[in-house]
Amino acid sequence: MPMPDYSLIVRNASFLLDGLLLSLTLTLIGVIGGLAVGTALALVRLFTGVIGNYVIDAYVFVFRAIPLILVIFWFYFMVPLILGRPVGAWTSAIVAFTLFEAAYYSEILRAGLRSVRAGQLNAALASGMSRGQALRYVIFPQAFTAMIPIFLTQAIILFQDTSLVFVVSLHDFLTATSIIANRDGRLVEVYTFACLVYYLICLAATAGVEELKRTFAR
Amino acid sequence: MNYQWNWDLLFSEPYAGWLLAGLGWTVALSITGWFIALLLGATVGVARTSSARWVVLLSGFYVSVFRNIPLLLQMFVWFFVVPELLPAKLGLWFKRDLPNPEFWTAVLALAFYTSGRLAELFRAGLQAVPRGQRMAADATGMNPAQALRYVVMPQALRIILPPLTSEFLSIVKNSSLALTIGVLELTAQSRQIENFTFHGFEAFGAATAFYVLVAFVLNLVMVGLQRTLALPVAV
Questions:
Q1: What is the mean pLDDT of chain A?
Q2: How far is B80 from chain A (nearest CA, A)?
Q3: HEC per residue, B15-30
Q4: What's the ipTM?
């Protein structure tokens, strides 16, 4: 084995940083998009009848049953077909991550809403609030406090999952490191460095979530 | 949208054979990885509940390493980096003489990644068993190993059965990442059929149907197991 050479990480810093930025951007889009669509799904479930329930149950079940890579492949193939023109990997990745995360977020939302005891809704209605007001002022604030740590943990998982865009050749952080590693034949140094970066980011984020949980528990 | 449907494609050669072979690899990866992960995860999970501080710290570090690095990167590390770091002879054997190196590397990556998650499950399960159980076992003259084997672990396993099933579903899904190091499992095969025929709906549909079926059956199995294994008195 040749002597380790870490200088190439410094030399390629801007390329790696662009990759990390893409990973973080995709995470942010996945969280916001997934939360928006997931909230819509949870609301449809709350306010519509049996048929709406079945459709959304099926949506959530299928998306949670299949691998994310398969979801990425599906949309990489399907989005251009539906739009009738080529759109590139970035657009289809955004669609894939948003719809995939929505399935998980809607389940978190549902569990969070259920964690608020039924007496709370009854009490709010009894005090003269409308159903909408009860949800807005009594149920949602309590549910959200319970959900926020789980949302953030899900975001950390998503950040790790964004590395799967490797399969459609988007230059996220992992793909950027793999390009440099293969081009320069420096697999050991570059992949060790990538491990360290992911490890530290996720460890710090997890510690932040734990701290938040402690604050809420007080 | 202009699309020519052709479901017969899935039942014609060579595509039917590809799908079946892919299915075989997915099952082999998941089951082999699962048993190794279960063994490692239970061991590390028990270590997490140890009374020795250094054992707790060490096993905690194990869990944090395998949980905080993306599985895809772990797969690359097992495939590209680990053979270089091993002693020369062993590394060479890994790269040259090991039959099916991609498969076994993927199994290792899946097993270690999953074991980190299982360890936390086992820890939670062990800690959820009331302390009186361990004390009672102690009082009847069992040594700590016997108490774990006959009293605490059987109860902990019942507690963690539901999340354990969803972890198995996760390893089935995660086995798709093996395609990045060249294992032609189910997702890879469906992608290959799409590339050859442009019939993505049929190809990905077949793979989707299989994964959904696994999830469905696992749900049923879990409910059945829970009923069969339930203790006469609630713990």
A1: 90
A2: 7
A3: HHHHHHHHHHHHHHHH
A4: 0.90
